[in-house]
Amino acid sequence: MAIEQIRTVLIIALCVVSFFLWEAWQRDYGPKPSPPASTGQPAPDAGPGDTAPPSVDVPQVPQPARTATAAAPSLTDAAGGSGHGRKIKVTTDVLAVEIDTLGGTIARVDLRSYPVSNDRPDEPFRLLDDGDPKRFFIAQSGLTGPRSAPSHHAQFESDADAYELAYGTDAIDVPLRWRSADGVEVIRTYRFARDRYVVDVRVDVANRSDEAWHGALYGQLQRGEPESSGGLFRTYTYTGGILSGPEKPYEKVDFSDMASQDVDRDVAGGWVAMIQHYFAAAWVPGAEETNHYYSKSLANGRFAIGVVSPVRTVPPGGNGDFSFSFYAGPKIQERMQGVAPHLERTVDYGWLWLIAEPLFWLLSWIHGFVGNWGWAIIILTLLIKLAFFQLSATSYKSMARMRKVQPRITALRERYAADKQRMNQAMMELYREEKINPLGGCLPIVVQIPVFIALYWVLLESVELRQASFIGWLDDLSLHDPYFVLPVLMGITMLIQQKLNPTPPDPMQAKIMMALPFVFTFFFLFFPSGLVLYWFVNNVLSIIQQWVITKKIVGDT
User: Fold this and answer.
1) Which domains does the chain have, with CATH numbers?
2) Starting from the edge strand earliest in sequence, which strands make up the sheet with 271-276, in order?
3) What digits encode the pLDDT tens for the residues 106-121?
4) Disulfide: which of 230, 267, 376, 507 matches 366 by Cβ 3.0-4.6 Å?
């Protein structure tokens, strides 16, 4: 194989990494789904607090004799907001929540342990918010049935306007009450526990009427598609819906999917979520039941995705109950594993998750010893380098031998400039004579690329690195280096690596290879500093290893 072909393979290997890095930006800039055309009467202009008629955005339950699960909801031109009820404030050690008495909607969730930024340490990150049209995101729930079923449009009563988890107590209950004219009483209780991002929702139905009551519990998440921010240098992470079940543990349902086709299926157990970078909200129904999952695109540009429990019958004078769990918090895998099967998969490592998950486990284990995520990244980089030591050594030895015979290759190119076939034959004879594998410098790099990409997603998706400080000016490893010191140092190390590699005989290929450090530096300017730290340390270790090997092989001549 000619040197041009070898260099081409190397360029392709490096460009694969570039492609995935570039793709991470570009996926935010594709065509956006258009809101579906409205049907029926157009909805009036609505702010985030306006409500829709109950008949259009509440899941409809068929008669119990026909099926045991609820049908898909009918959502058309509804604004679907949280309404204008009274707000009940609930405060725990990790959550600050507002519940709207109109529908019992969870209208606002602040994560008290996660500040907006290091510059605003006293301002908690707001995950759910019914007050900002651009960040509109709420969690609705209710009962649906042929009669006397309080949906998220029903007005509930509350004993108090504020609840706070007192010191020394482990949990607090927030009950909401509703009663129909025909004697059906409903108590919806939200249970908040210490150091938990899970809210247990229990609905008790007391049928004091003369007829059997039929109904189901539903929970749905509603939000608008977020606007792109950050321009070209916004690092892409998935924002949208997720469905989980036994057959498909992690299925993305993005906003374009919801705009084009409604989800309408029955699943055993499972859960439904809306996720974004670092955080998630999810409804988790009974694991032993077959639940109905649905999604809808609303004419106001918002989207709803939810789940309905099986229909239950409460006889006259009898009682019945339903229960869901609601998660709203950071995507911490060890916490999510105890909430529902596969909920930890919302930490989206992409198609290389089988490699990424062990890498994250190792990174967390190292952090448990050193107590700093920056040093944990450095140690993990060293361990990965040791794991690929022999592969890297093979690659560097091949490059060093190529550099050693570079003058002879140049001479062959000049001698057989008019006969490409004869030149390639002469080069292959030279490789056999010197025991050089033309692909020896390429294949080890190609083998390592999946690990590099998997670690990229680990460092990008891990909420543990959010606002994690390292040294000096690097006070948040999830943000770019504000002074661009790390990207520049990384670019310098790539230039040094280029100097250690054999120079391509072809001038055009030489220019392409010399341009790669500048291209990568440009890419990494606004990448999270934790990612750049990994790449910089990996380059430094590679330079040391390659320099020693090159000096030993080339220096002997």
Assistant:
1) 3-25+357-554 (no CATH), 63-226+237-348 (2.70.98.90)
2) 157-158, 171-179, 184-193, 198-207, 319-330, 279-284, 271-276, 240-244, 251-253
3) 999 999 999 998 889 9
4) 376
